[in-house]
Structures are given as structure tokens and as C-alpha cells.
Amino acid sequence: MTTNETILIIDDELQIRRLLEITLTASGYKTILAVNGKDGLVFSATHHPALIILDLGLPDLDGQEVLKKLRDWYRKPIIILSVRSAEEEIIRALDQGASDYLTKPFRTGELLARIRAALRSADGSPEATVLDFGSLTIDLVAHIAKKNQEVLKLTATEFSLLLLLAKNRGRVLTHKYLLREVWGYGYQEQTQYLRVFIAQLRKKIEDNPSRPSLLITESGVGYRFGE
Amino acid sequence: MTKGGNNWKVIRQYVLSAAVIGGVALLCAPLANTRTYHLVSFILLFVVSILSTFLGLGPVLLASTMSALVWNYFFIPPHHTFHIEKADDLLIFGLFFTIALVSGVLSTRVRRQERISREREKRTNALFQLTRELSKAGGMKEVLKVAAAEIRNHFGDEPVFLLQDGNNQLQGDEWSANGQQLTRQEKERGVRVFREGRKSGSGEIQSTTERYTFYPLGGTRISPGVIALKSSPPLTPEQESFREAFLTQVSNALEREFLGEMAQKVRFLDESDRLYKTLFNSISHELRIPIATIMGASDSILNARNSDEIHLALVREIFTASLRLNRLIENLLNISRLESGHFSVRTDWCDINDLVNKVTDELKDELKPFSLEVSVPEDMPLVKIDFGLLEHVLYNLLFNATQYAPGASVIGIRATYQDGRLLLEVRDRGPGFPEHQIREVFKKFFRGDGSRPGGLGLGLSIAKGFVEAHGGAIQVANAPGGGARFILSIPSETPDIFNM
To answer: Taking CA A176 as the corner, what is the angle to CA A88 and CA B343, rounded to the nearest 5 degrees?
Structure first.
């Protein structure tokens, strides 16, 4: 794979930087390394990376702070890679515009998948009118979803929820975000709606609803549409 | 000042008794000239005995003497002299005087005795009540509260306590039920009293000019501190000894609490020492094994020419070792979160299917050799729990099962909702637990007799801690037919689905 896209890695741990450099280079990406938040902010402006991998525990600035500063102007994906695993920390980062969040220790395969998903959703190419996920297809024009060529009977809410997740395939979307986008502002805390509709959707679209591969739960944070 | 008040009271009694006798004599004046002047002596005797029921000894003596003289002077002929003509009048006068004196003196004495014994009874009752209340109180704060309330009851004063810190130093803050503050000088006086073991003001220092008088709280083995009471005028010896007895009870109770706390500290130190040793031994073992694997395997990859197959096998070992290390650290972090209390239960609606799927997916490699039976009813409602915490709980229970159950056996997960509680059961067909150890399994660092090497013995105590943080309970039993069966029960509401 020779994508040649540049990825900026902001992480103060030498071993992690080295591991990421080896893994990403092997997958055809170019890497730039920053060892602290200040360098990270500078390099992001000078090198125009296609994606940034950001650690939260930096020696000079707090990662959340760096994220906020980056988001003042940087529109491309930022993936957080941190040992901080508290749900509130993850939700905060996602709310502040992080595209994704992975906790250390991580599996490199998982990281590469997240990078691909983030780059894909950011590439800005005109959207296909049909989203194809193997046995599941979603027709954006006709506003229908098909499972094994059969049209699924989905309520309007079920369809918008499915569509929102599918369009952001591979990215974790927080409960709050999903509730706000599908139900509206007054419903941000009504997570029980989300649980019930996700369970219903799984029964309709998953091959095996008790082993979901499309609608994946991110504990305490939100949902992700599987690849 | 109060002393003056007392004098004034006594003077008032004398005046009262003189006035009453004089008044009665005036009222009886019409009888002076008749032959019924003997009747006056009875009236006066009657008045004296009435007075003696509520006046002190002196005033009663005054009343009896005065009434005898008044009767003699104004009523016994010849009037207006103390001379008595008739022999029988003289006899009656003598009898009158004696009876008035004796009955007056006797009844005041009886009254005093009665008062003393009443007071004694009151004090005995007060001490008894104090002892009873103090023995009911548990913990230092509680004892202080009880002591303060009892002192307020019986001495009408809010006491201030200065307690030692356990090292015989009086350094802490003062304590009182109404938050009185001591000045620095007062605290210094308290410290001096504590050091000398004598109440303040008893020696050269004059206490009446000070706001408080300090009393040492002397225990039998350690002295808990000092108590400050508002300074008062000198007390009678009985009152003083009552106060002393009262404070001794309070001291003893405080000393008991002190010794209790110390003993607990020692126990705690012993316990933590034991824990430290266990932790040290097992962690060094648990850390070294996977590190040894990683070092050995990677060294072999770096320095030996291996076939692809061996190379892959070595890498797989490294990966397994890293998972094991990760699990260890996860458990250590969780137990320290639990121990330090630095975590909160953040409940949210959760689909139990989701929880079970998530955990069985994380453990899919470990579960591969088993036949997994999951049972969640179709109509299982959403429950309000902390997903992250329960994920750890279920993970630990399932992981344990995979470690002990024989291959190809059934591992079961069953969820139900009953009477406002989520019930979650994990059962395996492993060896179960020996009956004598089944109470111990949730203890930290507990390792069963038949434990496989590896593991710190933290998983189940973490599970218990997280479940209890939800206000729930976890139980373990040996399943009929063999194997361990864990049941956790967590109170939870269910959402109002009809509102959607």
C-alpha cells in the first residue's frame, strides 16, 4: 500500500513513537514525530499532515489543551492514543472534536483500521448514493436499507440512526451526539431510547444479533459502525 | 457575688421569720386580755413548726425564741413584763420554749438529711445514666457528644475538650458541641494542666478571673486530654466530688476509645504488613513470568535463526505474555481504585445483552474450548448500571471460569430481572470451592487450594467491590453436580418504555 499520506505523531514516549513509526511506515504512511505539545502544534502547521495521532499525557501541555488548540484551525482527523481510559476523558476528547480514541495498550491492527476509517471519512470525495456493507446496503436516494437484497422494515428513527452510524463508519459516536442528531437537543440524556433502538436495529441488520459486527458498543462512550 | 447572694438569702430568712412571728402576735393581740391567752401559745407553736418546714436552722431558732419571748411579754399576765406570776404559766412557758426549739430543730435536721439523700440519689442516678450512655456510645466522636450532653444536663455548661493526638501531645483542635473556640493562652493553660495532671486554679493561678477552669482527664493508663468548664464559684465538697466522679467516668470512656483506636491501628499495621508481603511476593512472581517470556522469546527472535513457524510461535508467546501483564495491571489498578475510593459509580441504561456480548467477545479466545450458554429473556428490561464496572466484574468471573473448568464443559451466563433487581449468574463445571474456603474467596489475595499458578487472587474481590458499590451483593455457591456458581444481584429501576 502506498498511500504516502503524512501522519503526525505527538507522543513523548520514545518506544511508542518508534513502534508507531515502524508500523505506519510499513503500511505506507509517512510519519513526522513530535515529542511535546508545542512541537506538535508547530509541525501540524508546517507539515499539513493528513491525520494526527495525539497522546494526552504530554510533558508541556495537556493533550486536551493541544486538541482544543488544533481544532481552532485543523479540520482533518485527530486520533487520540492515550493511557487515560476513564470514560469522561474519552467523552471529553470526542466532544472537543477528536475523531477517535484508542487507549494504550492498543493493538496495531486496530489502530490501522481506525486510521483508515478516519482518513476515508475525511477524504471529501463525493458520497456514493449507495453505502455497501456486504450483506447490508443503504440507498441514500431511495431512503431504504436492504439486508440480503430484501428491503428492511425500518421506522424513520431507526433509519436515521443507522444512516448516521453508517456514514461515520469506523468512528465512535458518543451517546450524546447520537441522541442529539437523531432525536434532538432535548433528548441528550435519554440513553434508554438509544439502547432500545440499537437493540431493535441489531435484530434487523446483524447476521447474529448477539455477536454484533455492525453496531459495536464502546463501553460507556457510544457506538461505532463496524467495518 | 453569688456568695453575697447567699448571705442575702439567709438574712431574708431571718427577717421573714421575725416578721411572721411579729405579725401573728399582732393578729393575736385581741386575745391578750382574755383568759384564752394559752390559745396564743398553740397558735405560735403551730406557726413555728410551719416555719421550720422551709427555713434554715438559724431562722427557726430565732422564730422559736422570739415567739416564746413575745408570748411571755405580751400575753402572759402581767403584761409588758417578762415576769411570770403563776407557777403553771411558768411551767407552760418552759414547755412552750422547749417544744418550739426541739420541733423546729428536729424538722430542719430531718429536712437537711432528706435533701442530702435526695441529692445523693440524684448524683448516683446522674452517674449511672452517664455510664450507661457512655457505654452505648461507639467511637470517639460519639463519646464526646454524649459526655458533652450529660455535662450540659448536670452542670448547665457546655464543656470544651482538648484531646491528645495519640503521642501524648495536646496539639489538635478543641472540640465542643457548640463550636466554642479557645484562645491561645487558654490552650497553653490546657497543655499545662495536661502535663501537670492538676486542675487549673488549684495552685497559684487564680481561676475565677479566667473564662474556663481546666480539669485533667486522667485515665488509668493514658490520659486522654483535658476538659474546660466555665469557671464557677467554689463548690461544696460534695459537689466537687460529684464533679470529679463525673469527669472520671468521662475520662474512662475516652481512654477506652483511645485504646481501642490504638489497638485498631496496630491491627491495621499488622494487616497491611501481611498484605505488603503477599503483594510483594505474588506481584514479583506475576510480573517476572511474562517479562521472562517476553525477554526470552524476543532474544531468540533477535539472535537465533528460526524457521518461520518457530518465529511465529515465539511472537505469539510474547503477545500472550503482554496480555497477561495487561490483565495484571488492570486488576491492580482496579483494586487500588476500590481501596482508595477514587471511583464513582456512574449508572446509565444498559442492555444486558450488550454487556454479555462485549465481555464474551473480549474473552473469545479463552472461551473457545468451552461451550458457552447465554440465557437472557426476550423481555429483559434495560437496567441502570455502570457498564464499565460491570464489564470488569463479568470479565473476572468468566475469566476465572475459563481458568478452572475442564475443556469442552459448559460455562453458563444467565440474566434475569426480578423484584427490582438484576440477577446475573455465571456458572462453570470446574472443581468449585472446598466448603471450608467458600467464605474466603472474595478476600484480597485469596488463592484457593487448587489454584492454578498465575493470578494474584484479586479478580473476585474486585468483582465484589464493584458490585457492592452498586448497592448490590455477590454470592458464591457450589453448583449441584459440581462447579462454582456466582450470582450477583443489583438493585435497578427499569425505564418507562411507554414514554418513548
So the answer is: 25
CATH code of A6-122, in short, is 3.40.50.2300
Q: A197-211, B87-101, B388-402 — which is least confidently predicted?
A: B87-101
Say how many domains are in chain B. Answer: 4
Task: Determine which of A155-159, A194-198, B357-361, B444-448 has the lowest per-residue pLDDT on average.
Answer: B444-448
Contacts of A19 in chain B (CB under 8 A): none
Contact state of A210 with B361 under an 8 Å Cβ cutoff: no
Single out the residue of B448, B464, B460, B447 nearest to residue B285, CA to CA: B447
The CA distance from B148 to B178, in Å, is 10
Exposed / middle / buried, residue B393 (Cβ in 10 Å: 0-12, 13-18, 19+): buried
Whether residue B354 and residue A192 make contact (CB cut-off 8 A), yes or no, is no
B contact residues 365-404, partner A, Cβ 8 Å cutoff: 374, 382, 386-388, 391
pLDDT value of position B2: 44
Q: What number of other Cβ atoms are within 10 A of residue B78's Cβ?
A: 9
Between vectors from CA A210 to CA A206 and to CA A213, what angle results, nearest 5°?
45
Q: In terms of domains, do B485 and B355 share one?
A: yes
Contact B354 A195 (CB under 8 A): yes
Q: Are residues B158 and B110 in the same domain?
A: no
pLDDT for B497: 62
Residues B329 and B457 in one domain: no
In this structure, what DSSP letter does residue A77 have? -
Interface test with B, best of A195, A207, A213, A215 (most B CBs within 10 A): A195
Instruction: Show residues of chain A in contact with B326, CB under 8 Å.
Output: 105
Q: Which residues of B touch A105 (CB under 8 A)?
A: 322, 326
Average model confidence (pLDDT) for chain A?
A: 90
Could you tell me the pTM of the whole model? 0.61
Q: Which domain holds residue B286?
A: 268-340
Confirm whether A6-122 and A130-225 share one CATH topology.
no
Which CATH code fits A130-225? 1.10.10.10
What CATH number is given to the structural domain containing B245? 3.30.450.40
Write out residues 323-362 of B within 8 Å (CB-CB) of A.
Answer: 326, 346, 348-351, 353-354, 356-358, 361
Region A133-153: mean pLDDT is: 89
- Say yes or no for a CB contact (<8 Å) between A220 and B387: yes
Question: CA nearest A105 in B: which residue?
Answer: B326
User: Which pLDDT band holds residue A224 (cuts at 50, 70, 90)?
Assistant: very high
Round to whole Å and give the CA distance between B345 and A18.
37
User: Number of Cβ pairs closer than 8 Å across A and B?
Assistant: 48
- Chain B residues touching residue A199 (CB < 8 angstroms): 351, 353-354
- Over residues A160-169, the pLDDT tens digits come to 999 999 988 8
- What ipTM does this complex have? 0.82
